Target: Precorrin-6A reductase
Amino acid sequence: MPDVLVLGGTGEARAVAASLVDGSVDLVSSLAGRVKDPRLPVGEVRIGGFGGREGLADYLRGNGVRVVVDATHPFAARITPNAVAACSDAGVAYLRLARPAWEPGPSDRWVRVPDIDAAATVVAARGGRVFLTTGRQDVSAFAGTDDVWFLIRVVDAPDTELPPHHQILRSRGPYTVESERELLEHHAIDLLVTKNSGGPLTSAKLRAAAERGIEVVVVDRPKEPPSIDARSTAEDAAEWVRAQLRAR
Model:
């Protein structure tokens, strides 16, 4: 029965699991199962959903979990509110581990939008050759854009409707500025579309775009529940977890 449940699927989740799985902490990492061949953390892994707030609360109670670290992706909008509520229901300590968002620099040309539909509207008005890096679940938002060519980079191939003019590039980071620069040049990209995921894993595309003067449509993060305890590094999160376990 685990002391700690890490809601994962991110590099931060793998890092915090590696910090805690040292023989003194019983830990389970949970992955949603949306990627066919995910990078697995060390230690025990659970794959699949819980069934919303009630299902997660039942899992926490039934397994005697004492601490939850929510290290899910910043755009996994449903799990964080459910996790906050489930931990409250079950009397379990909750921590949000979220990487800092990207911020534009002096040479960046950002167009910030609140959601993926707004990004699709900007792309339709702008036109051109677009590098789409928002993930396979959001590709369908651009399916009705007829006069734009898309380079669509994903880990797994999309299974939804696609825009009529596109090329699929299956790839997984991390990426270098040099490789991103070459990609933009080779495909004559003049617009980049990304979510503000933050972190270093995929940030090289922003620098490469800035170097070439390419506009970037940046989808802002969804709002998270207010007043939750949060950390921005795996090291700080692991220290918090150990303190919670000592106190409990």
In short: The mean pLDDT is 93.
